[in-house]
RNA sequence: GGGCGAUUAGCUCAGUCGGUUAGAGCGCUUCUCUGAUAAGGAAGAGGUCCCAGGUUCGAGUCCUGGAUCGCCCA
């Protein structure tokens, strides 16, 4: 113990307190010391998912950081060695876009004109533009992470490790360049990865044209005749200019149908949908395969059939045709759709792409050259209509992907791109996922598992500037070399690279080892998710350095991010480590839900409903913010962020905690208690310690299962028991300096400070420091181990508290003030309950302010007994006959049942002609209150009050009123709780008589050295039951 | 269109193995206690457990279908 504790503020400002604690932590380097103390212990590994510091942190970052913090703290207190290396995600398009915006760039060309070196230098600065905000917030919310030694994905060493990973993947034959149709943003001129399509706001509901186009047959086959019109449907008219073919399903039924004077070809199932009410007549019915090879006139003649090869502008067979929408004949533009592209590959069609990288048509599209393709939709449709080639044009509301950064609608566009063949290791990804424990559990085989099952190859390359350069060199002969280290590059080229970023690395070439021609680096950089997914080894520059350090810290025991990282970091971490090491890089992952505003809407700048974390921190403090996130809900369910609720955290948890603590300190100081010794404990003490042991056990069990929510709620329940029952019932012992009481409360508070340390690290440390202080900080102590429990006592106390509750309710019903003593409370209880209440009768009597407790043997003496079947027991036994049993039980005589139960005799009943016996567990008894008594009942429990008063009781009640008035006067006079007084009373004789009759009691309660009854017209007036009392108090020497 | 999750009091949330009067906190009304407490205690008001079927002696809980919301995918 730390000696007599220092005085405690009555009305603390938690934010100010936290600043002081922070100062102490800085002074004593507590965070680092907490790790140093565990040096040599078994590591418990946490990986920090790196944020980007190019914008200020928001409330959702506080949420993530609170959950990233609490379990490492807990594990450290359990004795594990928990390094926490920070990290920053540096590369990527968001940074580039921010710089572009600053420089006023509108096109990608602007960057090249400006110079890549200068542009990237600006990106390098920009990426840490808000790092001070982040550092400040991180410290303020007590997220203990090592930011001084944080990894940064843009550092040369980090990049070199990523190169190693890519080379390893290349050597496994899993890195390839493919020509694929990809979602492409013409504004940013970048290909988007599937993760980026998953960014919020990517899919938006938009209206696009929906057009049905007539394609007259020029070269009929099978059932077709020249001039028949193939009907195709598209929502992207701009792709019609490069129509290459029409796809039909070989087995699907198609029809030739007469419509006015024309003959159209359409899938039978869609005939009515397409032609609608227009009169039509089916001329022929045939499977799609019969018209394979038919030639037709394209919608536009900008590009001749020959350009696509021999199969251009003919009918082809595809397996992707659906009858859910459209016509069953699919317009195919090879460059602009994934199915289209595959079909083209299958039939050997030449890719013709008349759209430039900036999203405009090139010169091949005559009058439309230079126009943005989406803008041209309307004119193209009008053109078709003018030429009689349009069956119908409508608009179509559907969800379409947009660039998540700039909002431009994406084009599906055939482009060469570098891929990692993750589909080849899909089974290994699924196997790796099996080894991971997910919170919540359903993500494992739900959202994340499903994502893995539908895995597509990882589109790795980006045609951008600020990123890890793809370490692939290629010579004019097409020989590819992947470089895994700077040494390797130096050996090949003779150049030692200092900064591996573009454009410097672009200048490094070397003679191709195969053919001797100069190999140049391909221009792409890589997806930033590969950067962050590489952090398990790249943060240590492994394997080039620290290979052993990496090995010792792989895989992570725990990672934690928001649920939106399912397709982001969670995936890239798993994919990279499975590619390289065939196992998951994390064992446990906690997913966090979204933060919504009070109306359940997403927080966004445009709605103006963003909660600035600093507002919360300045007003309520970090402990309150943390406690709210940790206990308000299961973290994956998300939060409706509510400032009132955070205030409630203070009012309902932190303040009662503080008040209990401050109560202890107040009386420890008043009694000069430095080191209270255990011994002489009461049942109440033993109960408090048992509840403490119970809570320690429960908190450990929950925290081991990453359940901070229920651990925290249990802690709050313990505090409530302590504050509103233990202290409430023990006050006199603290006034009297009872050592066992001090020792008990001290143990409870110090243990609570340790249990609370991972949750609310500030207030926990403050309390620990003042009450114990063996260590410089609570965060350097070991997490409490459960002491001995007395479950019988806990159960007994629960029963006694029910009796108290019933008694108080009875008082309330009778409108009988608690200050008025009563002769007796009559308690009806079963034998076990009676024993419990008798054991704790002092507590019950004092709390109810009655002279005596009287017991009656059964509740039926206070009301008529009711007998009910115990469904839980009887249900399984009687099944379908249960309603008959219930009837039989209702027909039993309650008095007879009560006797039989008391005597332990079985009760016979008859069900369906068979006799059965019911035992005590088969029945539940309850009392019905009788008229005219003040009885409260609950189950088999009932408490009645004897309301009759005699003069003695009445005088005692008045004496207590007098004491109350004197206490008020003491408080008004600003006296300290331990000040002694000279008391003078005056006023109504009945009151003075009562005070005289109980003079010792009055003096004792009010710490009066002397009492006089001579106060005439002076002193503070008070009214008691219509009578006047005058009170004067004067401090006298102790 | 598909997947995952959610829906319980005005608000925020519990609700165990299916067991018969569905709970807590906040807020509201009334009373009460106070020698730490902006706290505590008692009473009251407040419920279509999203809806509809089904299984069962018995469903907030299990099954099927649907609605709404959120997230993810297409």
Describe what this molecule looks like in 3D.
It is built from 35 helices and 39 strands. Strands 5, 6, 8, 9, 10, 11 and 14 form a 7-stranded mixed sheet that branches. A 4-stranded antiparallel sheet has the order 4-3-15-17. Helix 23 (683-704) runs parallel beside helix 25 (739-756) and helix 25 (739-756) runs antiparallel to helix 26 (761-771). It is elongated, with a radius of gyration of 40 Å. Helices cover 40% and strands 21% of the residues. The two termini are 28 Å apart. Mean pLDDT is 85; it is low at 929-934. It binds one RNA strand of 74 nucleotides through helix 14, helix 22, helix 24, helix 27 and helix 30.
Spans with pLDDT under 50 lasting ≥5 residues? Answer: 929-934
The largest β sheet comes out as: 7 strands, mixed
**What is the helix tally?**
35
Strand content: 15-25%
Q: Tell how many strands the DSSP assignment holds.
A: 39
Structural class: alpha+beta
Q: Write down the overall geometry.
A: elongated
Q: How much is the average pLDDT?
A: 85
Question: Compute the gyration radius: what is it?
Answer: 40 Å
Portion of residues in helices?
Answer: 25-40%
End-to-end Cα distance: 28 Å
